[in-house]
Amino acid sequence: xxxxxxxxxxxxxxxxxxxxxxxxxxxxxxxxxxxxxxxxxxxxxxxxxxxxxxxxxxxxxxxxxxxxxxxxxxxxxxxxxxxxxxxxxxxxxxxxxxxxxxxxxxxxxxxxxxxxxxxxxxxxxxxxxxxxxxxxxxxxxxxxxxxxxxxxxxxxxxxxxxxxxxxxxxxxxxxxxxxxxxxxxxxxxxxxxxxxxxxxxxxxxxxxxxxxxxxxxxxxxxxxxxxx
Length: 228
What we know:
One of its GO terms (biological process) is potassium ion transport. Helix content is about 35%, strand content about 30%. It has about 230 residues and is of the alpha/beta class.
Protein backbone atom coordinates (compact mmCIF):
# COMPACT_ATOMS: atom_id res chain seq x y z
CA UNK A 1 0.00 0.00 0.00
CA UNK A 2 1.06 3.61 -0.50
CA UNK A 3 1.03 6.24 2.26
CA UNK A 4 2.07 9.86 2.52
CA UNK A 5 3.18 11.14 5.93
CA UNK A 6 3.34 14.93 6.33
CA UNK A 7 5.54 16.10 9.20
CA UNK A 8 8.52 14.18 10.53
CA UNK A 9 8.62 15.01 14.20
CA UNK A 10 8.95 12.13 16.68
CA UNK A 11 5.50 10.74 15.85
CA UNK A 12 5.62 11.22 12.08
CA UNK A 13 9.09 9.76 11.61
CA UNK A 14 8.27 6.75 13.80
CA UNK A 15 5.08 6.10 11.81
CA UNK A 16 6.84 6.47 8.46
CA UNK A 17 9.73 4.19 9.44
CA UNK A 18 7.40 1.49 10.81
CA UNK A 19 5.21 1.57 7.69
CA UNK A 20 8.32 1.24 5.50
CA UNK A 21 9.57 -1.70 7.59
CA UNK A 22 6.19 -3.37 7.12
CA UNK A 23 6.71 -3.28 3.35
CA UNK A 24 4.54 -0.31 2.41
CA UNK A 25 5.60 2.45 0.04
CA UNK A 26 5.90 5.66 2.06
CA UNK A 27 6.47 9.22 0.95
CA UNK A 28 7.53 11.25 3.99
CA UNK A 29 7.49 15.05 3.81
CA UNK A 30 9.02 17.70 6.05
CA UNK A 31 10.14 21.28 5.49
CA UNK A 32 13.43 20.63 7.30
CA UNK A 33 16.12 19.45 4.90
CA UNK A 34 18.20 18.20 7.85
CA UNK A 35 15.43 15.86 9.01
CA UNK A 36 14.73 14.66 5.46
CA UNK A 37 18.42 13.83 4.95
CA UNK A 38 18.61 11.99 8.28
CA UNK A 39 15.74 9.68 7.34
CA UNK A 40 16.31 9.09 3.62
CA UNK A 41 17.80 5.60 4.20
CA UNK A 42 15.00 4.49 6.55
CA UNK A 43 11.90 5.54 4.58
CA UNK A 44 10.97 4.65 0.98
CA UNK A 45 10.97 8.29 -0.21
CA UNK A 46 11.69 11.51 1.70
CA UNK A 47 10.83 14.96 0.34
CA UNK A 48 11.74 18.42 1.62
CA UNK A 49 8.59 20.49 1.12
CA UNK A 50 6.27 22.98 2.79
CA UNK A 51 2.98 21.09 3.13
CA UNK A 52 1.00 24.35 3.18
CA UNK A 53 2.22 25.21 -0.34
CA UNK A 54 -0.54 24.22 -2.77
CA UNK A 55 1.66 24.11 -5.86
CA UNK A 56 4.27 21.96 -4.13
CA UNK A 57 1.65 19.58 -2.73
CA UNK A 58 0.07 18.96 -6.13
CA UNK A 59 3.37 17.35 -7.18
CA UNK A 60 2.72 14.49 -4.75
CA UNK A 61 0.66 11.43 -5.81
CA UNK A 62 -2.15 12.35 -3.40
CA UNK A 63 -4.92 10.66 -5.34
CA UNK A 64 -2.93 7.42 -5.72
CA UNK A 65 -2.27 7.07 -1.98
CA UNK A 66 -4.27 4.82 0.32
CA UNK A 67 -4.10 7.51 3.02
CA UNK A 68 -2.43 10.82 3.72
CA UNK A 69 -1.48 11.30 7.37
CA UNK A 70 -1.01 14.84 8.68
CA UNK A 71 1.47 14.11 11.48
CA UNK A 72 2.41 17.75 12.20
CA UNK A 73 2.13 18.34 15.93
CA UNK A 74 4.09 21.36 17.04
CA UNK A 75 2.59 23.89 14.63
CA UNK A 76 -1.21 23.59 14.87
CA UNK A 77 -1.70 26.34 12.29
CA UNK A 78 0.39 24.52 9.69
CA UNK A 79 -1.40 21.27 10.52
CA UNK A 80 -4.85 22.80 9.95
CA UNK A 81 -3.77 24.62 6.77
CA UNK A 82 -2.30 21.39 5.41
CA UNK A 83 -5.49 19.48 6.23
CA UNK A 84 -7.67 22.16 4.61
CA UNK A 85 -5.49 22.03 1.48
CA UNK A 86 -5.81 18.23 1.28
CA UNK A 87 -9.56 18.60 1.61
CA UNK A 88 -9.61 21.11 -1.28
CA UNK A 89 -7.51 18.73 -3.37
CA UNK A 90 -10.14 16.03 -2.72
CA UNK A 91 -7.82 13.52 -1.10
CA UNK A 92 -10.00 10.49 -0.41
CA UNK A 93 -8.60 9.50 3.01
CA UNK A 94 -7.08 12.06 5.38
CA UNK A 95 -5.94 11.12 8.87
CA UNK A 96 -5.14 14.08 11.14
CA UNK A 97 -3.02 14.28 14.26
CA UNK A 98 -4.71 16.22 17.06
CA UNK A 99 -2.88 17.94 19.92
CA UNK A 100 -5.73 20.06 21.38
CA UNK A 101 -9.51 20.00 21.75
CA UNK A 102 -9.80 23.14 19.61
CA UNK A 103 -7.88 21.49 16.77
CA UNK A 104 -10.14 18.44 17.09
CA UNK A 105 -13.22 20.68 16.82
CA UNK A 106 -11.87 22.35 13.67
CA UNK A 107 -11.08 18.98 12.05
CA UNK A 108 -14.60 17.79 12.80
CA UNK A 109 -15.95 20.98 11.21
CA UNK A 110 -13.90 20.11 8.11
CA UNK A 111 -15.56 16.67 8.19
CA UNK A 112 -12.30 14.90 8.93
CA UNK A 113 -13.58 11.78 10.65
CA UNK A 114 -10.24 10.04 11.18
CA UNK A 115 -7.85 11.60 13.66
CA UNK A 116 -5.39 10.42 16.26
CA UNK A 117 -4.36 11.88 19.60
CA UNK A 118 -1.09 9.99 20.31
CA UNK A 119 -0.10 11.96 23.42
CA UNK A 120 -3.51 11.57 25.04
CA UNK A 121 -3.74 7.90 24.12
CA UNK A 122 -0.24 7.21 25.49
CA UNK A 123 -1.05 9.07 28.70
CA UNK A 124 -4.28 7.11 29.13
CA UNK A 125 -2.51 3.79 28.66
CA UNK A 126 0.24 4.76 31.14
CA UNK A 127 -2.35 5.89 33.69
CA UNK A 128 -4.06 2.49 33.46
CA UNK A 129 -0.74 0.69 33.99
CA UNK A 130 0.10 2.87 37.00
CA UNK A 131 -3.39 2.32 38.43
CA UNK A 132 -2.95 -1.47 38.29
CA UNK A 133 0.56 -2.95 38.20
CA UNK A 134 -0.77 -6.21 36.72
CA UNK A 135 -1.86 -4.45 33.52
CA UNK A 136 0.98 -4.60 30.98
CA UNK A 137 -0.74 -2.63 28.21
CA UNK A 138 -4.24 -1.64 27.12
CA UNK A 139 -6.33 0.39 24.73
CA UNK A 140 -9.96 1.41 24.57
CA UNK A 141 -12.10 -0.08 21.81
CA UNK A 142 -15.09 2.08 22.78
CA UNK A 143 -16.36 3.97 25.82
CA UNK A 144 -17.38 0.65 27.39
CA UNK A 145 -14.93 -1.92 26.13
CA UNK A 146 -11.16 -2.30 26.31
CA UNK A 147 -8.47 -4.76 25.30
CA UNK A 148 -6.00 -5.39 28.12
CA UNK A 149 -2.78 -7.37 28.32
CA UNK A 150 -2.12 -8.84 31.78
CA UNK A 151 -0.23 -11.70 33.42
CA UNK A 152 -1.93 -15.05 33.91
CA UNK A 153 -3.24 -14.99 37.50
CA UNK A 154 -1.58 -17.62 39.72
CA UNK A 155 -4.98 -19.18 40.40
CA UNK A 156 -5.36 -20.26 36.76
CA UNK A 157 -1.82 -21.45 35.94
CA UNK A 158 -1.98 -24.92 34.42
CA UNK A 159 -5.70 -24.73 33.60
CA UNK A 160 -7.28 -24.74 30.16
CA UNK A 161 -9.55 -21.85 29.26
CA UNK A 162 -12.50 -24.22 29.53
CA UNK A 163 -11.53 -25.07 33.10
CA UNK A 164 -10.87 -21.43 34.03
CA UNK A 165 -14.31 -20.44 32.68
CA UNK A 166 -13.35 -16.75 32.64
CA UNK A 167 -16.09 -15.71 30.24
CA UNK A 168 -18.89 -16.99 32.47
CA UNK A 169 -17.31 -15.97 35.78
CA UNK A 170 -15.98 -12.51 34.83
CA UNK A 171 -17.70 -11.69 31.51
CA UNK A 172 -14.38 -11.29 29.69
CA UNK A 173 -13.08 -12.99 26.54
CA UNK A 174 -9.51 -14.28 26.19
CA UNK A 175 -8.41 -13.35 22.67
CA UNK A 176 -4.97 -14.95 22.82
CA UNK A 177 -2.05 -15.80 25.08
CA UNK A 178 1.42 -14.32 24.58
CA UNK A 179 4.89 -15.67 25.30
CA UNK A 180 7.36 -13.01 26.45
CA UNK A 181 11.09 -13.67 26.21
CA UNK A 182 14.51 -12.04 25.71
CA UNK A 183 16.97 -12.90 22.96
CA UNK A 184 20.52 -11.73 22.30
CA UNK A 185 20.84 -10.00 18.90
CA UNK A 186 24.25 -8.66 17.86
CA UNK A 187 25.34 -8.48 21.48
CA UNK A 188 22.19 -6.66 22.64
CA UNK A 189 19.31 -8.10 24.62
CA UNK A 190 16.07 -7.68 22.65
CA UNK A 191 12.65 -8.30 24.20
CA UNK A 192 10.16 -10.26 22.08
CA UNK A 193 6.49 -11.13 22.38
CA UNK A 194 4.87 -13.95 20.43
CA UNK A 195 1.11 -14.53 20.32
CA UNK A 196 -0.09 -18.15 20.29
CA UNK A 197 -2.95 -17.48 17.86
CA UNK A 198 -6.67 -17.26 18.55
CA UNK A 199 -7.39 -18.80 21.95
CA UNK A 200 -9.63 -21.88 22.19
CA UNK A 201 -11.20 -23.82 25.03
CA UNK A 202 -8.15 -26.15 25.00
CA UNK A 203 -5.60 -23.32 25.37
CA UNK A 204 -3.49 -23.96 28.48
CA UNK A 205 -2.67 -20.99 30.72
CA UNK A 206 1.01 -21.31 31.54
CA UNK A 207 3.10 -19.51 34.12
CA UNK A 208 4.73 -16.32 32.78
CA UNK A 209 2.20 -16.17 29.89
CA UNK A 210 0.33 -12.97 29.19
CA UNK A 211 -3.42 -12.88 28.59
CA UNK A 212 -4.99 -10.55 26.04
CA UNK A 213 -8.50 -9.87 27.36
CA UNK A 214 -11.53 -8.17 25.85
CA UNK A 215 -14.36 -6.83 27.97
CA UNK A 216 -15.53 -4.01 30.17
CA UNK A 217 -12.62 -2.56 32.15
CA UNK A 218 -14.47 -3.02 35.46
CA UNK A 219 -14.85 -6.76 34.75
CA UNK A 220 -11.22 -7.12 33.72
CA UNK A 221 -10.06 -5.38 36.89
CA UNK A 222 -12.33 -7.64 38.94
CA UNK A 223 -10.67 -10.70 37.39
CA UNK A 224 -7.18 -9.35 38.11
CA UNK A 225 -7.98 -8.39 41.72
CA UNK A 226 -9.88 -11.54 42.69
CA UNK A 227 -7.73 -14.09 40.89
CA UNK A 228 -4.33 -12.53 41.48
